[in-house]
Hints:
The complex is a heterodimer of chains A (263) and B (315). Chain A is α/β, with parallel strands linked by helices. In chain A, 35% of the residues lie in helices and 23% in strands. Chain B has a two-stranded antiparallel sheet with strand order 1-2. Chain B is globular, with a radius of gyration of 23 Å. Chain B has 315 residues and is mainly α.
Amino acid sequence: MLDITNMTKVFYPGTVNEKMALDDVSLHVNKEDVVCVVGSNGSGKSTLFNLISGTYPLTSGKIIFDGTDVTHSPEYRRAMTIGRIFQDPTKGTAANMSIEDNMITAASKGMKGLRISLNNEKREMFRHLLEPIGLQNRLKDNVGLLSGGQRQALTLLMTVMSKPKMVLLDEHTAALDPRNAQIVMDLTERYIKEFRLTALMVTHNMQFAIDFGNRLIMMDEGTIILDIRDEEKSRLTVNELVRLFKNLRNKEFTSDEGLLTKD
Amino acid sequence: MLEGIFVDGLVFSLMVIGILISYRILDFADLTCDGSVATGAAVATMAIVNGLPIPLALVLSFLAGVLAGMVTAAIHNKLKIPGLLAGILTMTMLYSINLRILGNKANVPLLRVETLYSKLPKIFTYFSPEWASLVGTLLVVLFVKVLIDIFFRTDLGVSMGAMGGNEQMVISQGINPEVLKLMGIGISNGLIALSGGMLAQYQGFADANLGQGMIIQGLAAIMLGEFLFSTNRISLLTLRAILGAIMYKALMFFGRKYGYMIHITPNDFKLLTGILVIASLFIAQTRSVASSKGAKKKAMARSLARHEAALKEEN
């Protein structure tokens, strides 16, 4: 599904601020893999996601997605098949428009035409889709009126609606309170199963990364240092993970959030 | 005489709808307006002077505006410079182009030729000439308004609105925002130029300096309109822009008529328009602060009440 070979990203090359954010990363993701990505701040998780979705160009390397080379294709074109949800709940929806207008924009990917496709049939469908997140009676409300959790749930729904081949979840519950985070996470799990999605998810919650999905990769200083899957992953514990990290890098794992949320 | 205010306001309202599209819907601070309104006037005037039919002259001025807007959007898209700067660039370049269109003259009169406003009284013979002008202009404005309303309800129009709210969201839906901007700013300036084309015929000449300060007048009209009612429906947004335009022209009319009593001359109008925009922004800001203060008070009262109820229960 996703084939990354020797991907490198250097920020501000040739200046004093030069920073190697990703160092020769290769990653192969199979169809219907659900991969959790962990790592401390600055380890390159976000850069990885930004490069996969095309926010900025790579310094070197190659990305093959679903059989086509997307290394140089612009972000909006990759978005046709790769859905992405950000940590910031305001990024996925347009606050100045109603829920139904947001949903009609997401109902089909790509450039829109001069058709008016929002009709009562579509509204009925939206209402049905919105039921699990309790927004079925608020189609005409502006999205700006919703809470962060509701907005993120709506973003998730809109992303799934457009049937992407892969979703990138960039700590998409981190900005929510625990209860809403749980709701959005449950929905995520449900949609991934229901639509058999391939997913990459960044999380700071180590226990969660261990429980969720069939594969876990850990990043540090711009490289992937651990890649644990299936059988092996099911036996993993947080302490084991921290020990592995220490052995590999000869230093302590320094993500407080990661350790605090280990139970 | 009062009909004059309405005709003036309605001609102006086409421009205000154009500015509404760029500023409010696309969230793109576009200054091309000052140039494209004069372009529209120049194109319509030269077309009519050279014997083209009036509807064709208006279509040509619309298209000239679309082109000007697309230049601004293209500069912004390709060079990644802010829309504000791109607009100023186009506006400045348009000044020379407008002089060229007018045959290197700063002012071309529409004398001894048939214009929209000499024709309208002949079409609507039932009305007096002033009323005929008003009815004709109203029909043009309503036609444009309805087209714009329909456009912004299509999938394409909705995605433009979405881009104004959140560009990232539009990208995430696989849409190239550059294309949306090209179209949106194009349409916006097309309307502005159309307004210029009508204005030239209404006042009987095209002037290379016609556009000076137009953008601020347009913004003032939008803000005046926004005091009337609040809405997120496109048909009401355009209606509000039209009403705001008429209100602005009425204010200016009474300023001209009675301003001398407080020693205001037409020379002061640009200053007054600027002050009007600042005052509108100030009022809008104090309003939102007041409403959030009110909400805070209510929230505090609520939590206090809850706290007291909890205390009572404990006892």
